[in-house]
Structures are given as structure tokens and as C-alpha cells.
Amino acid sequence: MELRKVVRFVARLIFRFRAFNEGVLNTPGPVLLIPNHVSWLDWLFVYVCLDDDWKIVTSSTTAQISWLHRRMMLNRLTFPVDTTSPFAVKRIAEFLKSGGRLVLFAEGRISLTGALMKLYEGTGFLLHKTDATVITCYLRGANRFRFIRHRGWTRWFPKVTIHFGERQSPPKLPHLSTMMARRRLTGWLYDQMVRQQVDVEMEQGPATVLGAVAEAAGERPRDVVLEDVTLQQLTNRKFMTGVRVLAGQWRRILGDLPGERVGVLLPNVNATPVVLFSLWMAHKIPAVLNYSTGLPTMLACVRLAGLKRIITSRLFLEKARIDPGPFREAGLELICLEDVRASITAGQKLGCTFEQVFRPRAGVPPDQSETAVILFTSGSEGTPKGVELTHTNLISNIRQMLAVIDVVDADRMFNALPLFHSFGLSVGLLLPLVRGLYTFLYPSPLHYRMVPSVIYDRACTIMLGTNTFLNGYARKAGPYDFRSVRLLFAGAEKLQEVTANTWARQYGVRILEGYGATECSPVIAVNTPLNPGFGSAGRFLPGMDYRLEPVEGVAEGGRLQVRGRNIMRGYLNDEANALFQALRGWYDTGDIVTVDPDGFVTIRGRLKRFAKISGEMVSLTAVEEALAGAFPHYGLRCEVAVLSLPDEEKGERLIAVTNESRMQLDEIRAVLRARGLPNLCVPREVRFTREIPKLGTGKVNHRELESRIAD
User: Fold this and answer.
1) Could you tell me if 222 and 187 lie in one domain?
2) Predicted confidence (pLDDT) at residue 650 exceeds the cutoff of 70
3) Is 37 a catalytic residue?
4) Residue 440 in 3-state DSSP?
5) Which residue of 291, 362, 397, 663 has the smallest Cβ count within 10 Å?
6) From the candidates 37, 128, 283, 391, which is the catalytic residue?
């Protein structure tokens, strides 16, 4: 006991070690303590918190490597087992049934990413057979200690804390076979561990995105984190210095009134994140305008947000062919970055550089409840809605994603998705900045020939896209262009099977589909390398609750509603906000989904994109998916969208709209029947349009398409 106290004192001295919720360790056996495993000294940090009767499970095989291994792994504090023997788990189970208390590193190895890796199903077997109480444990900061296995940055004496979760009883699964039960319980344990990680990071980590990025910048000031098409690189220090300089300018130009909404009309260039973060430092709220929607819609969004000033660039307005006249006629002040940059003095730059070097976290607003950003929905089904996302919303969604995606320090993000869209902003920019990763910002996802070349040239390892954009890149890219890509996430629209097969066969890249909404900051569910479910939109992120509301005429699944810290504060639109607030924390996605026993979400379609034909609900999205890629003889550019029109006899009827003039209705009927769809899903006619209209995110603009067909 005295040795344990001495070791703990030393750990407190050199690692600033602290333990939280230690009282739970008084739980009587049988009990399993399950920590994450990130360094060679994890056992030591756990050991100093335990009573004498606790045993740490070790490998007797590994203990034979050297004298030191034997001394550390074979002693009165350990429970050695032969990991190559099928009876190892049985021995552990017998010890637990006798009332034992064990520490088990369920990953079976030190993490190569610093995040939680897979858990061995033997742990699920123990939970199924022993009725042991479970206590999860999260070691925070130990992944930065020198004695690790990942190849990221380390230091000799990082701050290490240990967090013990509340005692839990695993679910009883008597109706399942042992094999199915051990798999289900292993998944349950994984979910508890990642959820605990998110909770701890939200409690212990910076409360805002700006604070998290400032922390990363202070730890690794010389790392390059941003680059754009000008090939100008920004290190952490240079980025945060620019943020400080601009924040000072906004205080001078915009005044000190906190909470003012300021429009941002800029493309994917280095200046855009600098502007966003500097507005946060100046206590302003950026409202990011979607320049792909056209002037009337942008002005409607300006009025909705009550904007008086917009930060933009003359060069951008000229290249994007945006006429500034209507903005000025509406009484808006356009603040051009060229003018702001010219007013910055050398003394201001020097002062901000000095502050960033010696006080890297100074001037960071601490209030996490403040609105961080206003984004506007796509407007594909009506007038765009203004969405208020707080700092808590954004940082919690980032923490949720980082808990389940095995991002490493050496990863390099490529982001061509526009920053006015939540997918491009939160996943493509804020997440890598919080994690301290390199990000290349490209101005347009529509440059199908250039994007693959840039990814190849900059050796990017993480890539984002939509089904439409990924199809475009596949048509133009060479077979070696995506050699460096190891994580490719698709969202914003349904991933088509033909797209996934093309990328897997031509480039050897597995597309991981996700699902989200602007109102959810934006990710709700995602497929990961550890938990992939092809054809689904992935599993719910940790910390997200869901419920399915029944829908008349829909036999399978229901209307999805979700709840979590990443759900928005509310809408700017009064009517929409009243409906949201009435749900008391729940967000109604408007999507019809099914959820399987393993938690994978499958999107059946949006409720607004269902047609009621002869009393039956028919998903227009499902019909479109069945037709996607079904006409290879017309080429990859061939697209088919499905709309519904009123019908006197059956209530509604379906029509197919295509950009291929040679397509016949009989071909469409044959494909749908071959896919097993009923006659109600077969369109009554086919219409031709030269181009299927798209939103800036690549999704079909059904609202615009309907107006074209009506004309």
C-alpha cells in the first residue's frame, strides 16, 4: 500500500495525475474494470487507484519476452493467462464467478491511433456468462506519453487523468446464441466506452471550437494546418496570429457589441476560416451565405438573419460574377478583406504574434452556450431556414466523430465541399483544426479533372464528397490518383451502389457513408472502418438518442427524431422554430428510416418525398435509387430523378425525369420490375431535360426540377 502511495505521488508530481470518481472502485465482485489502452504505462495509472485484491489481466506469453516483462507481468498484482489458449477466457470467467475483481484491457493491444480500437469478443463472452458488473475507464492524455505505439506527436510529461465511469450491468440476452450474445455485448461495451470518452472530453476539454483550436495551436505551433489553391501554407501559429489581428480589426470596424450577426460571403480559401475564428474571438456571430443559390435567395437569408454587414472580397465577387449592387440597394455594408488587410499595421501584427507566442490561449471567449454560427438549409423543398448552432453543438459533434473515427496525427484532409454547408464546415474544416490536422481547401467540388490531381499532389489521406461529386471524379481520375486516400466519407445524398463499386474496383477505396442534417451540426450517424454497414447510413454517434414515430401507410420503420448535445439551439424562422421548441430537445429529421438490432440506420426516404398512390405510401427516393446506375449503355452522366404529380384516379402518379433523350419508359419499367419493386413504383411517363438541376452540395434540386416540369 505504501508503494502505491509513493507511485501515485510521483505520478501527480510529473504527470499532474488526477483520478475522478474513484469511489466506484469499491464495488464488490464480480466486477470488470475496462480501460482504454494507449500507452505502456496505462497499467501503472490504473494500479495506483486500486485496492490490493484487484488483479490486472496480463499475457503470460508476452511475459516470456524478457526478464523485465516477466517481473512486470507475472506477480501478485496480475492475473496472467495464455492468450493463445482457448481456455484463457474460461479461467477469467471462473475467477469472476468466484467474486473476483479484474482489470481487463479489452483492446488486447496498445492503440495505434490514440483512439479506441476494436474490442475482442472474449470480453463479450465474459459479460454474457458471469453477470459481472462493468466499470469503464478512460485514460485522458496518456496517448501523448513517449511510451506509445502510434506515430504522432508525444512529450515526456503530458498531463494524464483517469476517469472511472458509473457501475453498469450489461443487458441480458437469453434469447440469443452465445456467439450472437458475445458479439452484441462487445458492441454494447464499445458504445459505453466511446460515450464515456465524449462525456469526459466535453467536461475536461475546451468548451468552444476556438478554445480547442487554440489549445492545439499552443501544443504544436509549427505544424502546417491550412493550405489553399494559392499554395500558401498557414501553421498553427500563423493561423491564430491572423485570427488575433483580424479580431482587433472587427472590434474597430464593427464595434464591441457582442452577439452581432455578420454575414460571410467567401469561398474555400485560407482567409475564410481566419475570418470565422476572428469573428468568434471578437464575440460576433458569423452567418455564412450560400453563394450558389443566387441573389434573391441570398437576400432572403440576409433579411431572415437581420444582417447589416457582410464580409467578402472584391476578387471573389468578380470571379463568382456576383453583382454587389443589390446588396448595397438593400442597405447592406460590404466589408472587403482587401481594404481591411491594407489597414493593418506592422505594429499590430507584431503585437499579435507576441501574444500568440507567449499567451496562446489569451482572448478566447469561454462561453460555450453562445451561438457560434448561423447556417442556412439547402432550400430544396422550400424557403431556406436559418439554423443557430452553438459552440456546444459544434464541439460536441466533433468530439462524437473523433471518438469513433480512427484519425491519426499524420492524416491530411482534402475539402472541396463549400464552407456554407454544414458538412464542409464542420467535418471538412473544424474537425481537422480541432484535431490539429493539415487541411487543403479547394474552391469548388465541380472541378472533376483537377480535384483528383490535387489530392494526388498533396498526398491527402481523408476525403469528403457527395455521390454526385464522387461520380464526377471517377469519370476523370487516373487509377493512381487516390493512392494516398484511406478514409473517404460520403454524405448529403444517398450513396449509390454503382458509385461504391466503382471506387472499390477502380481505386481500391471503400466509401464510408454518413447521415446528418444542418440542424445536428451535422452528423447523426456514420459508417466507420471498425463498424461498416454497406447500404446503411452507419450507426448513431455516441451520445445520440433516437425514436421512431409511426407514419400512416409506412409498415416498416418510422419518422426519425433525434436528441443530443449536437442538436441546434433553434431556427431563425418563427414558425419552424415554434415546431422545433415544442418537441423539447428532439429534432424531427423528416426522414423515414429503419434501425437494425446493431444500430445501423437505413434511410428509406424523406416524408416529403413520399407519394400516396391508391392509398399506399411510395418512396420517390427508393425509386431513384433503384434506377441509379441502371443504364450503363448511356454513360455515367445519365441521371434519372422521380417526381410525383396529382392524379384524379389514384391521388398521385410518378413521372421520371432524365437528361438522356434516348431513354424509353419501357426501359425504366424493366429495371424496376427486375429490382422487385411493385407496379405502384413504376412511373407513368418519362420526360427529358437537358440538365438535372443541382444544389451547391450536389444534391438534386427537386424544387427547381418541379418548376421546370410545370413550365
Assistant:
1) no
2) no
3) yes
4) strand
5) 362
6) 37
